[in-house]
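Case study 2.
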Amino acid sequence: METTGNLYNGRNDGTQSWIEYLDGEIAATEADSVTHCLAQIIRDTLLSTDESRAAGAAGRIDTHYQEYLSSDPLLKFANDKGTAGFLNSLYELVFDVARLIPYRDALQDILVQLIVELRKLPPKRCKIWDEDALVYTKEPIFTSVLDENWNRNLPSTAGANSQELEKTCAEWVNFSAFLARCIQSNLNDQYEDGCKYPSFDIPKGLEEDHPVGVIRNCLVTVAVVYILLASSKIHYEFVENRREDSSEKRWGLDKWQLWAEKLKKLVDSEGMGSELGDVALEAYRKMVSLHSGLFPVTD
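Prediction:
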């Protein structure tokens, strides 16, 4: 997974938000409920210092799934064996927590690794939405929950006061960083258009004109974190994996050059802020290093 010192340079004031969220979920649910147990496992995992914590959490989640299945004998006769509801609860919790973990915090990597470890477990066959599926390994719930979260969380100035807007923008950046980590870790590979998100969100931040302010900085930051955390995967999908002399390859090369040039111009622009300017510069350098032939050599 790609990392950068700038992204992990400490935590911000939102560090405790994810703990408060999970504590609220635990307090509001019955001790044997799916949400209660999953929230407790995620909380324990993120607070642990054990190097094998993600693998341990995956095992605990799978054990709880088996207990959940046996708690209702009728579930074993259902086509999806109760899997759709269980996985939906799991991934909603994961994405909710990711939105509250600062985008610079390596705890997001632990959440990604948890999903990776779940996919290493022996798959269980079932049907979800009348299609053959393998629990954790090949199922439609992950991308469905991801799509819903991506579609409903884009920041908007409509009806929002400045404090609400700041919060919404911070959570959108955090969510986008987590999604970038998922893409770089190949978690989206099995899904059609699994790399579509940066193809929308990078142009929104680097190609569209926005007035100086919170929204602009948010959208630019989202574009930057995609490039910093998933640049090699994005470059592969949009450039390397395209047939030579194809229109798709030309599109990818044009976009790569355009985005890098936009980043370079933004580094010293008004209203960017020093931290965002620094990471924008780092993103630019990463893009150049991945395809140096597109950029002229300067002294």
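The radius of gyration is 20 Å.
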